[in-house]
């Protein structure tokens, strides 16, 4: 045996043990999206680099240091998608999806960012995201946020808290940006290197700093809410009223600016204190300027994305157990001839019970060894096919989880017995 090849740092295998938790999150999200009339879209994992540099913004963390960018074989620069919004907008523009119509879309898949790997922060991670494109009013902001709240409810998660802010229009923000620049320039000696770098390029991001030494400085900085334009204020107030109307709690946090350039007006983040240093479970906002920035007409839009790994880890942190589907029955065979018929019998049973998990022994060996595997599989019943059973046109049923005598049943009775069991189980 040679040396094993190791995976790339920060890129995880999602092993079968966690499949039930992943499926729970993915299925709940899908069910909610479909119930709200959102349609799935799938986009490529690779895009031209300029799609991201032009949309996410040259001065953002993602574009400056987190992108996986390569030269394609023909020399053009391509990038593994760090997020889905830019790709969805590109796809919509290329295919005329925004031409005089609105779109409610959702998407999911792996994203790639060159970050320092740690708990809940990976280089390949998975997002589920929704985008509503073409809707100017606050109704859609409220709808999208409600959908995320519904998702926590359905999963039983209690820790996520909603932080909300309005960034106003780009014009209002430009004025605020100057005010911030003036403020931080006066205390320039107290800034750390990261904030100094942001001061010139993107002073709003200083508010995002996690450096405890800057807390007081940031607390006393001018507030964005004092610079908001009237329309944005009206939009935001209406959003808050709609959230009130469906009893969604929130905290207005004027320091929430989000790391991407394309946001305007509403921004929000669901945060938790249960994932260590990583607090954001789901984040999003309005990006009214992005569609035109990428070559389309002025088109209002809003979206959010959640990190699947973080939500899965949160299920665990909140001790929400997710039950996995175990086989209902595990079929074993005694003897060569019965074994040759094992697949056929399994298929008959599967046809009768399309929603049950029926597992067939594929290893062979002694009956004892097969029954041991049946037990380890977690199945409720072992079904034994031997010559005696074949002669009678029946299968032996051995309960593996309770103390009931072994019986022989024909296919019809077997199927109705298993069906009865399935209906009883939670
Ligand atoms: P953070 O502040 O944690 O870096 P972010 O603002 O970069 O998050 P977004 O770009 O808004 O995150 O992505 C949306 C969601 O994707 C986040 O709320 C988070 O749950 C998840 N996410 C982002 N980066 C990672 C990562 N490297 N590993 C795992 N999940 C991530
Ligand atoms: Mg980040």
Can you tag this structure with a few keywords?
426 residues; alpha+beta; 8-stranded mixed β-sheet; 5-stranded mixed β-sheet; 16 strands; 39% helix; 19% strand; elongated; binds adenosine-5'-triphosphate; binds magnesium ion
How is the secondary structure organized here?
Elements: H1 19-35, E1 39-40, E2 46-48, H2 49-55, H3 61-66, E3 68-71, E4 77-80, H4 85-94, E5 103-112, E6 124-133, H5 138-155, E7 161-166, H6 170-186, H7 193-201, H8 215-219, H9 230-245, E8 251-252, E9 266-271, E10 280-286, H10 290-293, E11 301-307, H11 308-317, E12 329-333, H12 336-340, H13 342-352, E13 358-360, H14 367-376, E14 381-385, H15 387-392, E15 395-399, E16 407-409, H16 411-424
Parallel strand pairs: 1-5, 7-8, 12-13, 12-14
Antiparallel strand pairs: 2-4, 3-4, 5-6, 6-11, 7-9, 9-10, 10-11, 14-15, 15-16
Helix pairs in contact: 1-5, 1-11, 5-9
The structure holds adenosine-5'-triphosphate (ATP) and magnesium ion.
Tell me briefly what this model is.
The chain has about 425 residues and is α+β, with helices and mostly antiparallel strands. The chain is about 40% helix and about 20% strand.
What does this structure look like?
By secondary structure, the protein is of the alpha+beta class. It contains 16 helices and 16 strands. It has helices at residues 19-35, 49-55, 61-66, 85-94, 138-155, 170-186, 193-201, 215-219, 230-245, 290-293, 308-317, 336-340, 342-352, 367-376, 387-392, 411-424; strands spanning 39-40, 46-48, 68-71, 77-80, 103-112, 124-133, 161-166, 251-252, 266-271, 280-286, 301-307, 329-333, 358-360, 381-385, 395-399, 407-409. The strands form three sheets. The chain has an eight-stranded mixed beta sheet with strand order 1-5-6-11-10-9-7-8. A hairpin with an 8-residue loop joins strand 9 (266-271) and strand 10 (280-286). Helix 1 packs antiparallel against helix 5, helix 1 packs across helix 11 (308-317) and helix 5 (138-155) runs parallel beside helix 9 (230-245). The protein is elongated, with a radius of gyration of 28 Å. The model has no long low-confidence stretch (mean pLDDT 95).
